[in-house]
Amino acid sequence: MIFQNLLALTSALVVTLIQLGSMDVMGSSEGIKVLPVDMSPSIVYVEKDGKKGIIYPEDWDDNDAQVICQQQGYKSGHARRDLGSVRLQPNVTFGAVQVWDRGSYRLVCAEGFDDLAAQAVCRYFGFAYGINICCSAFGRMEYNIAYSNIKCTGIESDILECDYVKYFPNCTSGHYASVACSNNPENEEFELKIHQSGKVSIRRFDNTGFFCANGFDDAEATVICREMGYKGGSAYFHSRHTKYSTVPLLGVPWLANIACVGTEKNLGKCGKFDWGSVGNCDENKIPAVYCYNRTGFSFALVHGTDKDNGLVVFTVDDKEGAICLRDSVTEERQKLAAIVCKQLGYGNGGLLLNGTDAENEVIAREVFPGESDLFITKIECNGNESSLAECTFRILERNFPFTEDWIPFTMDGCHNPLCYRVRGNNRWLDINRELSCWDGKRRLAVKCFI
């Protein structure tokens, strides 16, 4: 009865939504509230007087879907007449294959799932082509694997038209299936891009994606930078987790463990180039590169009382940089000092300046004068690393444009202007902390031990 009553209202609801068009995210009309939807194909639920139902009128079309999606902060949207029995996460063109069943989404086993199965999935969403991305490529999923032994012939327009085993999956690997969809056929062409933050993206099959951190090192960075017109490059890693956002939507994990030597003229010449076969991507790191034209990174201690202590500096090309500690606590700084000393060939090390932050800044400016062209910042280490290359960090150049890619934040969960202002102010404070590095504050100075 609940659904019948609400369904009777849906046609009027759609007309009213189109007329208003500017309702807030949880906008309502005549006591009817539209519940949030996500970026994958979703059923649109409504709520009235605490009772929940669905919008599913006969004349539901793209105009109606576009209004709903724009209300919820998306640029646009398309209508589907089915109940969304299959969806992709995290995006409508790529992601883990999820099937709606018994009140929840279920995953499909990756074993035996091939390009024919991927094509069936993608046809369901209106794409001409699809390819398999293996395996559990989009990280941890909250749903269980319930479909296995998928066998498709290549003519199906829905994965559920293929043969499969349901509820008793033979899935010894425990990996789920994923796909990427496109309206253009697969080929070996791809496009590389190095972002201002150093992150590397790669576009193929009409889908932008990324390299997994697995097996990514200076050899891969050198080849990528050389392909982009530089002499060479150094690899480092960003953290995938930020203070103001969830895991960034990076795209398709296209490559992992590509086994470059470093002498290759382009990425396609590297030893292992298996598109979409990435296994489990490292969920904590995003590969980045810093390209140079003369000399790569080298670290040293300067302005100390002896060779085993001083300000930690690095040079690359003709630029000199320092390590910015930002607002890290003393224990984290001690941990970082020990790692840097190990990287320089010592057995251990600690902080050279052990006063308060204010005292340290005064002393540092007197003992370690001058400015830097670069900073290593946003460092996250476990403490057992033997060099900074094993940690995650960012490299910040003077006059760096602070893009969303650098310090992103999300409006998820915000439903009022105050929340938006707080999130925005927090991001601005974070930027100001970064800018304070240029004033000579928070630079790392260490004393190393044999």
TrEMBL record:
Cleaved signal peptide residues: 1-23
Presence of keyword Signal: yes
Disulfide bonds: C152-C162, C260-C270, C381-C391
Transit peptide keyword on record: no
Keywords of the record: Disulfide bond, Signal
InterPro entries per the UniProt record, alphabetical: SRCR, SRCR-like_dom_sf
Gene3D superfamilies, per database record: SRCR-like domain (3.10.250.10)
Highest rank taxon of the organism: Eukaryota
Residue ranges occupied by any SRCR domain in the UniProt entry: 86-182, 197-292, 299-391
Protein name: NETR-like protein
Organism placement in taxonomy: Eukaryota, Metazoa, Spiralia, Lophotrochozoa, Mollusca
